[in-house]
Amino acid sequence: MFPVTSPSTERRDAGFTILEVLVALALVAVVIVAVGSVMAGNVRGVRALDRHVALTQATRTAMATAIPPRDQLAQGTSSGQTDGYRWTVDVSPLGGDWTVSNADVAWVPELVRVRVRSPGGAISDIRTVRLMKRPSE
């Protein structure tokens, strides 16, 4: 059999020095701070994404409910509020003179601008073109 020997505690290289322990603790502290910083950045990013998704959803809701059907669409401004999100819908003529003399056209293009402001101040501004019944002359 092999003789059993216990490790010597009287040798100078038998353990860690206080300096080595302090360096190891400092490295661990730096790694923990770096991981915490990354996690905090991720939390901020998730919150910003959540606010953006909520604003987009409020804009979609405003477009679906605030813009009347094409046969009831009229020029002018309407506004309202839903869940703290304020919306405004502006209907105005599109561009220059779209009327064609002596033309038998039942519909004319109108610019529809939907603006939604979140409770935090972010703004969504969507513009689209809708066909509107031509006013009878």
Please tag this protein with its features.
137 residues; alpha+beta; Pantoate--beta-alanine Ligase, Chain: A,domain 2; 1 helix; 4 strands; 36% helix; rod-shaped
Largest sheet: 4 strands, antiparallel
- The CATH C-level class name: Alpha Beta
Q: Secondary-structure element order, as H and E?
A: HEEEE
How widely separated are the two ends? 116 Å
Radius of gyration: 34 Å
Low-confidence stretches: none
* Count of alpha/pi helices: 1
Shape: rod-shaped
Number of domains: 1
Helix/strand class: alpha+beta
Task: Report strand %.
Answer: 25-35%
The third-level CATH topology is: Pantoate--beta-alanine Ligase, Chain: A,domain 2
DSSP strand count:
4
Q: What is the mean predicted local confidence, pLDDT? A: 84
Query: What is the CATH architecture term?
Result: 2-Layer Sandwich
Query: Considering DSSP H and I runs of 4 or more, what fraction of the residues is helical?
Result: 25-40%
Strands ordered across the widest β-sheet: 1-2-3-4
